[in-house]
Amino acid sequence: MKKKVVAMLILSMAGTMIFGGCGSKEEEGKTKDGKVKVRFASWDEAEDVDAQQEMVDKFNAEHDDIEVVLEAYGGEFDTKISAGMGSGDTPDVMYMWNYPAYADGLEPLDSYIEGEGEDYKSNFYDTLWNYNSIEGEVYGIPIGFTTHALFYNKDIFAEAGIEEPTNDWTWEDLQNASKIITEKCEGKKGFSFQMKPDPYDFEMYLWSNGTAYVDEEGNLEGNLNSDESKEVFEMFQEMEKEGYAVATEKSGTDEFRSGNTAMYIYGSWSINTLKEDGVNFGVVDIPAFSASQDSVSILSSSGISMSKDSKNKEAAWEFIKFWTSEEMNKERIGRELPVLHSVVESEGIMEQPEFKPFYTMLEQSSGYTPASFIIESWSELSENLSLSFERVFNPSTLEDVSDVLDEAVEQ
Asked: Do 116 and 110 contact (CB within 8 A), yes or no?
């Protein structure tokens, strides 16, 4: 009798566990009040997160059946996304840029895009899709971007008595102006660049001179150490050696803000800061290596992606559409450059001289694929390249460009 009772209790407990488990699965991806729950992971911090929460609240107020929960990961974004993908606990929707590293855990979005019609995709600047895709498949919808452009200090040019840069400048023009500024303006240099440049960014100069770090098969030999590549590195090093350019520890923004250098190349991130500081600055296209060819820029692009393991993909897509809509593009102006043709036109972005060069560079840079999208071991290669570049540009070393690049392809 006791054995029967014990057996019945065990069966009862097992049944409770089984049906309880099923019950919890039915509630997975739901809020307490039965709404579809969409987890949204952001890498932003502080006031940017506050602004995002306001936009998330707006979406939630407009949808009775969906509730988006913002998860602000900040500096731990990559760690938490990697851990989530490894444990099957990835947020439904997340900011994204490093598609080569995370593509296996992301939902391809081509079918969702096709479902919105041709006008949806064509409203985005075409170059942006290349940075949000892997091997022809789209894994992220563009949110914001910046290319790079040449910033210059108008007051310093006036002090030196020379004409300001124009969009058709070549590097020879920049060098000539830098020499005059350094000679005529005491304590000032004509140009600044990073002593240890980010390899991802620096590749744009190689593109502009007809080469790249690697070819389509990922070969460094004959590319990174090509004559065209060496010419780029030698040009920057020569400007430093001759004393009219300075290699900086950071981006060059600090030197530009303080009026110690007349020109530097950077993304649109510094525009608001320069305005707040009252710097009298202008922005033009990156100089070309010759008058017959256009300069090219790297693209820093943020996208929004969907987890392939999301249980609520339709709701996740609904939120992605909202987050990339015209309304949200306008909302983010000042923090990110709009990615939609319609918003750029309606808001008169191209009529604002500090923004126009970034769009010109965007259109000129179509069709270029960063080495980080080609090389599987990009993190390791990037670190090695960074150390090699420092050997070339560190004023205490200034090693021979040809020797350093030839050695770099053998690592």
From this structure: no
Q: What is the pLDDT of residues 232-242, one digit of tens each?
A: 999 999 999 99
Cα–Cα distance, 166 to 28 (Å, whole number): 58
Q: Flag whether pLDDT at 323 surpasses 80.
A: yes
Tokens 């770099």 sit on residue: 408
The answer for residues whose C-beta is within 8 angstroms of residue 66's C-beta and 6 or more apart is: 35, 36, 38, 59, 60, 315, 318, 319
CA R_g for the chain: 26
How would you classify residue 108: left for phi > 0, otherwise alpha for psi between -120 and 50, otherwise beta?
A: beta
pLDDT in tens, 177-233: 999 999 999 999 999 999 999 999 999 999 999 999 999 999 999 999 999 999 999
Q: Binning pLDDT at 50, 70 and 90, where does residue 27 land? A: low
Q: Of 270, 226, 240, nearest to 397 (Cα)?
A: 240
269: closest CA among 351, 355, 194? Answer: 355
Which residues contact residue 191 at a Cβ distance below 8 angstroms, ignoring those fewer than 6 apart?
174, 178, 239, 244, 245, 246, 261, 262, 263, 264
Helices (H), 185-260: 199-208, 227-241, 253-257
Distance CA 362, CA 198 (A): 19
Q: Is the pLDDT of residue 385 over 80?
A: yes
Sheet holding 93-96, edge to edge: 66-72, 36-42, 93-96, 300-306, 141-146
Confidence label for 267 from pLDDT (cuts 50, 70 and 90):
very high
Compute the distance between CA of residue 207 and CA of residue 1 in angstroms, rounded to an integer.
84
Q: Quote the tokens at residue 160.
A: 């030196």
Distance CA 265, CA 277 (A): 18
Instruction: Return d(Cα 250, Cα 196) in angstroms, integer.
Output: 8
Q: Distance (Å, rounded) from C-alpha 214 to C-alpha 229?
A: 11
pLDDT of residue 328: 95
Q: Residue 79 CB: number of other CB atoms within 10 A?
A: 10
Written as six digits, the tokens of 210 are 């007809």
d(CA 388, CA 314) in angstroms, rounded, equals: 47
In this predicted structure, what is the pLDDT of residue 335? 82
What's the confidence (pLDDT) of residue 310?
97
Classify 334 in phi/psi space as left (phi over 0), alpha (psi -120 to 50) or beta: left
CA distance 198 to 33: 48
